[in-house]
Amino acid sequence: MGDRRKPIFVTGGASGLGREVSRYFASKGWFVGIADINPDGMAQTAAMLPAGQSSIHLLDVTNREQWKQALADFTATTGGKIDVLFNNAGIGSGGAIQDMDDSDIDRQIAINLTGVINGIRAGFEYLKNTPDSCVLNTSSAAGIYGVGGLSVYSATKFAVRGLTESHDIEWRELGIKSRSLMPGFIDTNIIGNIEPGSNQTGKEKLESAGIEVSPVEIIGPAAWQAVHGKKVHTTVNKMAKQLAFAARWFPGRLRNQRTGLVEGLETIVSSGT
Ligand code: NAD
């Protein structure tokens, strides 16, 4: 690790995957900038990390001025360096596109896609000034093949996948890697949005349809491997790996999904891909 604590800046650090990656990298000795719109959640994450190994940054990833301020504050304590910029904040909701609210569509694109672009641009000079730095973006299994009932979310995650590939090429000469995580379902707050109004939780609904929901602990080692390995995209959990395999070799099976998010995923799982 050399003579300095490596810094990682984590958006969506108040919950779920961001919290877990913060915890994991801190356990490896890294210094973590926890960024989110949720101050209480950030304080809880910080309390899980060793003392003196984190800072907290109130940041709405859609706000470019807040990005500049947050990274200036963070790098003031890291000697101007960022080893990993983890663009992870995201929201997800679905339904038929014709039935979605305009505001819901705009917000998903603003957070899941524009928020990532904002972070990459705000972080560029710090990444460039850090040897062997890495942008890690959270895409999704929904960025591997389109998912019925989740089209806008899926589109944002495809876009994040594209950004990752482009920057991995563009910035190679600058010594900045670009990587994505493509998780299947993981047990965090976001899956509570699956078919709200049902008397089952999102996790119960998915599991009763035979769809795997992985424990959040799966993400720390996956993020570590993504940052330190050579692959541009890291699929996380069995379902994501099955999807990637099927998208490559049996795309017809994926096209035969039934409509509806859970029903469609049930088809994929039961088709044995
Ligand atoms: P989560 O809801 O537990 O955490 C998301 C965090 O993002 C929250 O702390 C929230 O406050 C924060 N956030 C939301 N809007 C923000 C904004 N404008 N600015 C800053 N922070 C904001 O969900 P999660 O599962 O931890 O989601 C993290 C990422 O993982 C998302 O990009 C999500 O799309 C992706 N993902 C999750 C799963 C899964 O099954 N959990 C699967 C694939 C991809």
Q: Which CATH architecture is right?
A: 3-Layer(aba) Sandwich
Q: Write the CATH fold name.
A: Rossmann fold
| CATH homologous superfamily assignment | NAD(P)-binding Rossmann-like Domain
Can you tell me the residue ranges where pLDDT is under 50 for at least 5 consecutive residues? none
- Count of DSSP strands: 7
Q: Give the structural class.
A: alpha/beta
Query: Taking all residues together, what is the mean pLDDT?
Result: 93
In what range is the share of β-strand residues?
5-15%
Q: How do the strands of the widest beta sheet line up side by side?
A: 3-2-1-4-5-6-7
Radius of gyration: 18 Å
Bound molecules: nicotinamide-adenine-dinucleotide
Cα end-to-end separation: 40 Å
Order of helices and strands: EHEHEHEHEHEHHEHHH
Count of helical stretches: 10
Q: What would you call the shape?
A: globular
- How many structural domains? 1
Summarize the amount of helix as a percent range.
Answer: 40-55%
Topology:
Layout: E1 7-11, H1 16-27, E2 31-36, H2 39-48, E3 54-58, H3 64-76, E4 84-87, H4 102-128, E5 133-138, H5 151-170, E6 176-183, H6 202-208, H7 219-228, E7 233-236, H8 238-249, H9 251-255, H10 261-270
Parallel strand pairs: 1-2, 1-4, 2-3, 4-5, 5-6, 6-7
Helix pairs in contact: 1-7, 3-4, 4-5
The chain binds nicotinamide-adenine-dinucleotide (NAD).
Write a concise keyword list for the protein shown above.
273 residues; alpha/beta; Rossmann fold; 7-stranded parallel β-sheet; 10 helices; 14% strand; globular; binds nicotinamide-adenine-dinucleotide
Can you put this structure into words, describing what you see?
The protein is an alpha/beta fold and 273 residues long. It has a single domain (7-270), classed as 3-Layer(aba) Sandwich (Rossmann fold). Helices cover 46% and strands 14% of the residues. It has helices at 16-27, 39-48, 64-76, 102-128, 151-170, 202-208, 219-228, 238-249, 251-255, 261-270; strands at 7-11, 31-36, 54-58, 84-87, 133-138, 176-183, 233-236. Helix 3 (64-76) runs parallel beside helix 4. The longest helix is centred in the middle third of the chain and has 27 residues, at 102-128. Bound molecules: nicotinamide-adenine-dinucleotide. Nicotinamide-adenine-dinucleotide binds at residues 11-12, 14-18, 36-38, 41, 59-62, 88-92, 111, 138, 140, 183, 185-186, 188-191.
